[in-house]
Amino acid sequence: MRQGKTWPRRAMMVTWLYLVAGSALAGTACIQVPLQANGHYDFAAYLKPAPGAYSASMWQSRGLCYADGAAWIERKYGTDQDTAYDQRYEMYRSSTLPKRQALPLIIWAHPSGPSQVMIEGNAQPGETSPLMEKLVVPAVNAGFAFMSVQFRHPRASQSVKPENFNPRVPHTDIAQAVQWVRSRATDLGVDADNIFLLGQSRGSLALLNAFMPDQRDRSSADWHARSSKPRAVFVAQAQTTYEHAELRDGFILPRATVPVPPLTQPGFDYRAYLDRIDPPFIDPGSALAALDLTDPPFWMRYERAPTDHGNVTVLPLGMRVAPEGRDPMKDGVCYEPPAADYPALADSGCFDEHHPNFGAALAARFLALQPTAEQLRSVGIQYGPRQATQRQLDKVSAQFYDHYTCFFIQNLTPAGAVLRAQAVPEWQSPSCRITDWPWPPTP
Questions:
Q1: DSSP 8-state assignment for residue 123
Q2: pTM for this one?
């Protein structure tokens, strides 16, 4: 299991209980592309020049449905308002190629805050987008098509109204996107055998979707009959379980009792908080439980290091502190005193949904399965450095996706490698492996 350098604690002011989705829809349902009389779908008709600085190099389609176009309501990010969402996607591909030329595909699952939108439709000529520059441009230049999906999350896709809580929010939308694409691969201009998943934070649900049993229903006459298994998956800041008991018992030690000056109360009781506040979800899912050696290769990156590589248990000695009457998990900050005064508290961090121990636990689970040497070479988990400034921490996060396409390139089928080579000249995107470059970046 490949690992990078380690990283210190970071005061996080977010909680996995309050992950929410991004931008609202513009009040319109996604577009279902109709089946034509010739038995095909004319997705090419919806490909238009991409907005902004990408109009001369990329085609884009947006607002189209995938799967059944299912709709739902969830809290809009940063507000106390519910907003409508549905199974929609954006597609990007090189405008120098025929619109139906078969290409390997990367499916992106967004983190909290952003939506499936990679660049706004009203972007001005010459305007760029960070998401386009970090994710889409490298993919297209490497000979891939790129698809960004809106999707449901078992914890995030909840109404702001407690009475509307849904314990059975599906966690399989990303897998459904893979199935749907496979069923329409020829018309979409996609190689059905080379579909890859990419996600961050909320979008690391892609990991569970890659590991869970194949969702294929061989008795179905529609897209459900196709396999949901991707070729490989790359995630950043991944939470590897959403199951209450596994999360509480596997990652959170009992209440810490070390007083932290100038405060005298004991450490925040994470377990009691979790038992009190965590809604009664039904089967939200666990990548840890689902993983086996038949699953696709995976690569993971975290901005900091695990608390303990061996014990893989979060040490909740850093204390969340909040004003009187406020919720420490929602409104508190992670207080960590100087290591010189309280060495037992050094680098302990506070629990959050991005804690690198999620990655360490998955590494331990994978190794316990006794993988072959070849299987070991096909996976990796990298962590940021341990000592760094806030600016350097931001640099690590900004470079989560450095050379990420190389991981997918090295996992192409031989036929997929040929298709990619036909799409881009060798000098533009040579064959590469993700281990060809060190990560994380040097502080």
A1: P
A2: 0.88
